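Write out this protein's structure.
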Amino acid sequence: MRQRLPFFAAALWWGSLSAIGFFAVPMLFAHLGSPAIAGSMAARLFAGQTWIAVGCGLVLLLASRPANGDAPTGVAYGALAFVLGGLLLALLQQYGVSPRIMARENLKLWHGVGSAMYFGQWLCAGVTLWRLQTVQLPPAA
């Protein structure tokens, strides 16, 4: 289980980013009558996504620690920078960019910054997932 948990967390993180950012939010803007209502709902979805990212990131960070206390090596070490980068992007977007978008402060600029940060987080989660899938699991007993 300990060997499969990081892969599951990375898959959940990347999949939830994909589903919310590339499917659910565009559907809100396409089918809700008002961009203000769609934007408000999208902000709630993105806030929920931040907590999914934090939870999955914490699982990945904890799972990357070897049981004997040594520094992480191999695939876990290669993915560690992307986990930390993705977490940083998620938190910066939620607490730095999102309030400015909701306040409609220079909306074009902050929406562009937020979109770039979301895409960066999606890439970090994807690279993490890609690197973790190369870990060889022992055969099931």
